[in-house]
Design brief:
By secondary structure, this protein is mostly helical. The protein is built from 15 helices and two strands. α2 packs parallel to α4.
Length: 280
């Protein structure tokens, strides 16, 4: 009696398999339903094209990604956590893959099950070139006001000026407050961190007169902390002029289609920069 069909791994030991079936002339005709149970375990073991695309994105295999896209793989292929190939490419710093996926129509604003996005990953991991590509492709920080305020205050508390600068470059509004309406500038002033205060003021256009739920301003926080250098800077014309100029940049970014930023109109500029030239 001829032995039944069996499956053996090929010589490479990979996911491909050889299905050895004795000549059908020696058997009763095999119907599709009879063969399916034999093939199903093999098909389940074979990687899908989506899995292959995600692996190629993660490893930075540009030509393989292009090949799979040309074969019909969607550029927004995602895993069980909804992490897309774009997110994986960003995580591993494969800028060429990021550019390829964006050109193929990948959604730069997709979010995974944990709320992460390609742009947020680029900001946190310091991928500045990739940040530029994503922003040019329409990406924006998809965080709630509370989440973004918490992230900025955390960057200040952890003394991470570079991370703060990347958040600002990605369009973060530095004037958002936490549950006590304390802005990142309140936190930096209270900790006496002049370098971070300057970043917030000169790059983010921080509101020098922001008031928390207790009625305290950043200047009052610096005074209470006896941070003389911070207090002197916040009271200076230099700080006021720098904040005004930074808010103009934020307003221009918003007018050109950028996301985020407070003071995106003249009324906001006037409210936060009273007495400066050209304001009423």
């Amino acid at each position: 009696m001829t032995p039944p069909p069996r499956c053996n791994m090929d010589s490479a030991g990979c996911t491909g398999y050889l299905l050895r079936i004795a000549p059908l002339s020696h058997h009763a005709p095999l119907t599709a339903l009879a063969v399916l149970p034999l093939l199903l375990p093999l098909l389940l073991r074979l990687p899908s094209s989506l899995q292959l695309l995600l692996t190629a994105c993660s490893k930075g295999q540009v030509s393989r990604v292009q090949e799979l896209l040309d074969a019909g793989c969607p550029p927004d292929a995602a895993d069980y956590d909804k992490r897309t190939g774009l997110m994986l490419a960003v995580t591993h710093g494969h800028r060429d893959v990021v550019q390829l996926l964006l050109a193929a129509g990948a959604n730069p604003n997709a979010r995974d099950n944990l709320g992460g996005s390609a742009l947020l990953e680029a900001v946190k991991s310091g991928r500045e070139g990739i940040m530029s590509d994503l922003l040019a492709g329409g990406a924006w920080l998809q965080l709630s006001r509370q989440e973004l305020a918490a992230a900025l205050c955390e960057a200040v508390a952890d003394d991470q000026p570079a991370l703060l600068q990347r958040f600002i470059a990605a369009g973060a509004d530095v004037n958002l407050g936490d549950y006590d309406r304390r802005t990142p500038l309140h936190v930096a002033a209270a900790d006496g961190k002049l370098a971070l205060v300057r970043v917030l003021v000169e790059e983010g256009g921080a509101d020098l007169g922001a008031v928390d739920r207790w009625g305290k301003t950043p200047v009052a926080e610096a005074q209470n902390a006896r941070a003389g250098a911070v207090e002197a800077y916040l009271r200076s014309d230099e700080a006021r002029q720098a904040a005004y100029k930074a808010r103009q940049v934020v307003a221009e970014r918003a007018a050109s289609g950028g996301r985020g930023g407070v003071g995106n109109d003249l009324a906001s500029l006037q409210e936060m920069s009273p007495g400066l030239p050209g304001l009423g």
